[in-house]
Amino acid sequence: xxxxxxxxxxxxxxxxxxxxxxxxxxxxxxxxxxxxxxxxxxxxxxxxxxxxxxxxxxxxxxxxxxxxxxxxxxxxxxxxxxxxxxxxxxxxxxxxxxxxxxxxxxxxxxxxxxxxxxxxxxxxxxxxxxxxxxxxxxxxxxxxxxxxxxxxxxxxxxxxxxxxxxxxxxxxxxxxxxxxxxxxxxxxxxxxxxxxxxxxxxxxxxxxxxxxxxxxxxxxxxxxxxxxxxxxxxxxxxxxxxxxxxxxxxxxxxxxxxxxxxxxxxxxxxxxxxxxxxxxxxxxxxxxxxxxxxxxxxxxxxxxxxxxxxxxxxxxxxxxxxxxxxxxxxxxxxxxxxxxxxxxxxxxxxxxxxxxxxxxxxxxxxxxxxxxxxxxxxxxxxxxxxxxxxxxxxxxxxxxxxxxxxxxxxxxxxxxxxxxxxxxxxxxxxxxxxxxxxxxxxxxxxxxxxxxxxxxxxxxxxxxx
Length: 465
Ligand SMILES: Cc1cc2nc3c(=O)[nH]c(=O)nc-3n(C[C@H](O)[C@H](O)[C@H](O)COP(=O)(O)OP(=O)(O)OC[C@H]3O[C@@H](n4cnc5c(N)ncnc54)[C@H](O)[C@@H]3O)c2cc1C
What we know:
One of its GO terms (molecular function) is FAD binding. The structure is a single chain. The chain has 465 residues and is α+β, with helices and mostly antiparallel strands. It has four domains: 97 residues, Uridine Diphospho-n-acetylenolpyruvylglucosamine Reductase, domain 2 (2-Layer Sandwich), CATH 3.30.43.10; 117 residues, Uridine Diphospho-n-acetylenolpyruvylglucosamine Reductase, domain 3; 94 residues, Alpha-Beta Plaits (2-Layer Sandwich); 101 residues, GMP Synthetase, Chain A, domain 3 (2-Layer Sandwich), CATH 3.30.300.330. It starts with 8 loop residues before the first helix and ends in a 13-residue tail after the last helix.
């Protein structure tokens, strides 16, 4: 393949003044950064089609370098894409308009503030590395996305991620207390980590979930917790999904906060827990309670009083703990011609079962679908996140089939009144539906984009803004 980058020698010289040899226009690097984990792009690549190519990749080592890179991009109107671990699943880092990829992984310093229960961490820090660092010091962040190993702090903040233990610890938005952000013209701001402040609207909220379209996050102050003193692993088999969902709803109403709750529909129960006879034909729930011993004991009592289902021991939890960071499923299916993806949405309790039924039906209605299933993985006193999985072997174009399933799912979710994303974000795959979900509030987002990034250099096209 022939490829010539489009950056002038003047721009390249200017960039290398900032980052030295941490700049590349080599084909191998441009190819590496041409996609993220968006599953359909693997099908494209197997057919020799690239999603897009950047013109250069840079690896800054500090905030000042990021500022200078962004200033160069701003002066020359060259698109710029913040890149963390590249584990996003919706095409968020795809350089669709060419330009410069800014990979932040060399920015990974960590500073612990024990008395304030805070960690000050640079945006490129790897998730697993951060958690291990905290564990050694006697703390946890409580943030465990399945992609803990391949993702970064900046990526979590930019996509508004949640982890598997979110029912107790919350999503990343509940953990971020302070932020450093480089704005689209190269100036940086520091939003300080006060425990709370009434100093106007919360400006952090503009950047959390902005997916690289409004600025580059270079540092965050995150809340941490003492490493849990006690952990209790529980699992149940319920007669149906409703019983399990209703149990968790009532547990949360009473103020108990299990760290992990995962309710698998009958299809996923069969898929994941085939070794556990008591779960056959049932709906399996795995649950982990953790924290201060007394609190956990009280929570265990509440769970015992409320759960409609038969306790089936620690086995299913152990099994889940062993397999929970497996991230290779999607890439194994593509070479076999199977189109596979997961779609997470959220809904209030009053419409939870309706959403599960409607979305499952919508996915199955698309010709070529082999199976559609779900588990509920993040819970709130007000509602729940369903994580749907589908796989299909379409007769024709895989992308056409893929888009049909996505369309059916988004439409069903909007019809029932759910949120079209719970934690993966919008990226390039979901952008056409964001406007519909937000209604005229989308205009607010667009105007913020206009005001902050008038030259539209920050990840242009992402999120549809
Ligand atoms: C198998 C698998 C499992 C997953 N499980 C989960 C899960 O449990 N929970 C969950 O929430 N997500 C999950 N994800 C999705 C993904 O890992 C998250 O979205 C993660 O937060 C992305 O982080 P990253 O560092 O890889 O970001 P990237 O993929 O590198 O970037 C994602 C987006 O953020 C922007 N961005 C990255 N860094 C910055 C920065 N410093 N400043 C501004 N913008 C930035 C990019 O431009 C892009 O738009 C999973 C993905 C896979 C492949």
